Amino acid sequence: MRALRARREDFVAFGDVSPDGKKKTAIAIANIEEYLKLLPTLKESPGHLLWSSYDAEADTLYINFKKPSHATDSDMTDDDVIVRYENGEIVGLTILHASKR
Asked: Is the domain of 71 the same as that of 98?
């Protein structure tokens, strides 16, 4: 899986002025195609819900399928992914060494 990298310069907020001096009138995302690639995964996720956050210091990606979730058990896979369960239901994934994937 290729990591998505969103930078401030990828986003143009409402009312920003472009380098050529023209005012932008809507939010634009330069790399929207990369985000659209997430749709098949989202459609297959439990409950069709997905929240994520990346901790750069720990190089860990947290994916949650339920909010709030309170894991009651977890399993570590051979490729350093922690599958988190709440009463037998998968509620999230913790992906270690995320930037190396």
From this structure: yes
**Under 8 Å CB-to-CB from 26, ≥6 apart: which residues?**
14
The count of C-alpha atoms lying within 13 angstroms of the C-alpha of 14, restricted to the half-sphere facing its C-beta, is 1
Which band of pLDDT confidence, cut at 50, 70 and 90, is reported for residue 70? very high
pLDDT in tens, 5-26: 555 555 555 455 556 655 554 4
Domain identity same for 52 and 98: yes
* 95 and 75 both lie in a single domain: yes
CB of 4 closer than 8 Å to CB of 34: yes
Count of domains forming the chain: 2
**Single pTM value for the model:** 0.65
Amino acid identity, residue 59? D
